[in-house]
Every structure is written in C-alpha cells, then in structure tokens.
Amino acid sequence: MRLSRYFLPTLKENPSEAEIVSHRLMLRAGMIRQSSAGIYSWLPLGYNVLKKIEQIVREEQNAIGCQELVMPTIQPADLWRESGRYDVYGPEMLRIKDRHERDMLYGPTNEEQITEIFAASVRSYRDLPKLLYHIQWKFRDEVRPRFGVMRGREFLMKDAYSFDMDAAGARRSYNKMFISYLKTYERMGLTAIPMAADTGPIGGDMSHEFLILADTGESEIACHGKCLEMDWAKDIDLDGDLQPIVDDLTSRYAATDEKRDPEVEKALGDDLVTARGIEVGHIFYFGTKYSEAMRARVTSEDGDEVVPEMGSYGIGVSRLVGAIIEASHDENGIIWPDAVAPFAIGLVNLKVHDEDCRVACDETYAKLQAEGVEVLYDDRDTRAGVKFANMDLIGLPWQLVIGPRNLKNGIVELKRRATGEREELSFDSVLAKMRG
Ligand SMILES: Nc1ncnc2c1ncn2[C@@H]1O[C@H](COP(=O)(O)OP(=O)(O)O)[C@@H](O)[C@H]1O
Ligand SMILES: [Mg+2]
Hints:
The protein contains 14 helices and 23 strands. The protein has helices spanning 21-28, 44-63, 77-83, 85-88, 111-121, 167-187, 243-249, 262-268, 289-293, 317-327, 355-370, 384-394, 404-407, 427-435; strands at 32-36, 39-42, 67-68, 74-76, 94-97, 103-106, 130-139, 154-164, 193-196, 207-213, 219-224, 254-256, 272-287, 298-299, 305-306, 309-316, 329-330, 333-334, 345-349, 375-378, 398-402, 411-416, 422-426. Strands 3, 7, 8, 9, 10, 11, 12, 13 and 16 form a nine-stranded mixed sheet that branches. The longest helix is centred in the middle third of the chain and has 21 residues, at 167-187. Bound molecules: adenosine-5'-diphosphate (ADP) and magnesium ion.
C-alpha cells in the first residue's frame, strides 16, 4: 500500500477525551473514529489489526475442533423469554421493536440463540460433543463506556459454546478451551494469566477469566508471584488428557475481585502480588441452565433422554486491539507484535524527488510485495522527520529507510521498531530477511 493513497488520518495532538494510552494512540494513529459514546468506526489501519486478531482466534478455535458459524446481531425477545433472561437482563440490553411491534433486541451474547439452533437439530449422543463459535458484534449499553474500544457499547467478541452428554464431557471441552486460550494470547505476543472467577449459582471451579496485567486495567487481581514468570503456553497435545495440565496450571493462587480469599492471601506473605489487569477472555461452565429451559434433549446410548451440559467461552476481539497496545508501546507510539501488525514493514523514501531513490524504492516495494510481504510504502512528499514520526506512531515491526546517500553504496537502513536497533544492509539481504 502506498501511503500517498492510504486512508490514514493521523492526529498530531493528543485527543483530550482519551484517558489511557491505547485509546490515545488508536485515535492518533488513525485506527478508529468515534461514532457515539462507546461506538466506533474502524478505519483501514485499525480494521486491518482487528482482522489479524480475529484470524488468530479463528485458527485456534478451529484447531480444537470448534466450528465457526455466524448468528445474527438482532434476536427476537421471545428466545430470551424462554430462558427467563429477558426480564432479568438489565438496561444493558438494547431493546428494539420492529414495524410489527414485535420485541427484538441487539444481542449482548448468544446462549439462547445457539441453544435454540442446537435443540432444533441435534437429537443423538452420536452428535456430541459439539463445539460451536462465532465472531460477531455485540451490543451492551454500558453505563460508562470508556477507554475507547476497551469498554465499548458495540464490540466484537468471539463466543463459543460447548454441548456435552455429561459433566465429565463438559470438563473436557472446558479444558480444551482453557489451553487453546493460552495459545491464542501467546500468538498475539501477550501473556494472559488465567484467574479463578465467580461461577455464579453453579459453583465449582469451572470459570476462569484471562487477564493481561496493565496499570490501566479495570480489574483488580491478586496472585502468587510465580504466576508472572510462568510459561503458560508450553507445547501441549490437545488430544491427550488435559486435566493434569490444567490442574497444574491452576495450582497457584490467582483470583479476580470476587474470588479473592483474604486467608490465602495472608498465608502467601511476600509471594502475594496484587495488580490491575485487563480481562481479555472469560470461560464458563453453566451446566444445563439453558439446555433445560430451552428444551434441548439428546438420546443417550441407552435410550435415555439427556439434557446436555453446556459451557460458554468469550474472547474480547476488539478489546484485544487496545490491550495489545497497552502492553506494547513506548513514548513514540505503538509497537505491534509481528503476528498482529497491520503491515510487516514500512518503506520510507527519504527523497521522493531524487529519481534514483524513487526507482530504488519502487523496485523494493514491488519485490517485497512479490514475496508476499505486507508493505506500507511512504512515498509522500514530506519531511523525513514527519515520516519517521509517523512510522514510529503506527508501530510497524520493521522500517526500511532508503535515501540517496546510502543508495550510492547500494545500502539501505533497516530499523526494528521494538528495540530501535538499526542495521545497514544490502537490498538482497533485506529481501532475504523479510522472506524469512
Ligand atoms: N463492553 C465491552 N467492550 C469490549 N469488550 C468487552 C466488553 N464486555 C466484554 N468484553 C469482552 O468480552 C469478553 C467476554 O465477555 P463477558 O465475560 O461476558 O463480559 P463481562 O466480563 O463484561 O461480563 C470479556 O472477557 C471481554 O474481553
Ligand atoms: Mg467476564
């Protein structure tokens, strides 16, 4: 993409409405634009990152046999009357009437919808277990939308649902998701720590929130100091028995607000760490709550009628864009981890009016593209200082600088955004490096 043609409305000044660094940088880097409180348009650079994150989530869901479908954003209220949630779900639910005066709503989540789909079509134990997910926009009319995409009203979530014949099966599904979440975050360059979360009326130990630590996080957490040093995403065979692995990973104290235990914390002494964190995922086992109410029934091998056991599993896809920036930036701007970067490399032409320089840049651009490398090519007629500042702001992992002076010696400068390290290389070695 040539920057001269790209829609990248960057801002020079810090927008005053933004309280935290990720929100400021997303606005300044031209990634999003607010439409109304907690509702955003995603501009090309931001949308690009959102899609990268979505794709990692998708691949890791598919890897555990979870199948993608897509459910509507607008749901009939009757579905929620069946589960009994229409009246209890508070003002966060956006309620709408259609032209026939039928009650509709903009989905804040999809337990009812998926259970209805499942109940209508699955009858036999042979079809279980089933893991289904979608990546779809949600609406929750939050009292206090804030921090940009971190707490929006409209936001993109991956929500998955599991159906199993019994509680043991549900636990296997839960464990698969648990491990797959750790892999998902690790691929994005994040360390997300699973923490015991409130299970509600079901009780037990099968609810975890996944948090990344950040001073700007909305959740207060407490954990054993060792949790901060653990290798969460070690290589794990997903087809093996995951219970001992999950038991091991959850053996150290790590709890969110409602689950904190003063006794345990006192006993931990100096090992206790309290911090703030950003909730980037939440997994939950809720037994037969929805399957019972919505009359999902499956015939067992012995011919008995069984109410399937369910769980639900959310990842805040749009929140992750902000969360990654919170975890990875410096005073000059964003530092994208390679896996979610909107472009792999930014190519900077230092002197667009110098014919040799222009030709060298155009050729390098073409070659990189031919190699399948995603390049953002700054071919604009602006000062070098502006170009460097822009590149640092938007945080592409590599910057390739081509100027007339180095060009005479057949040399270009490659900068790693994260470390600021610069190398002078030949054209060929740059291509080889990016290729591989
Ligand atoms: N208002 C929001 N804005 C952005 N992301 C959200 C919002 N609410 C929830 N999420 C994301 O979706 C995931 C699943 O949501 P869930 O646990 O149901 O929400 P909550 O924790 O607000 O009850 C959360 O872990 C979070 O990452
Ligand atoms: Mg939650």
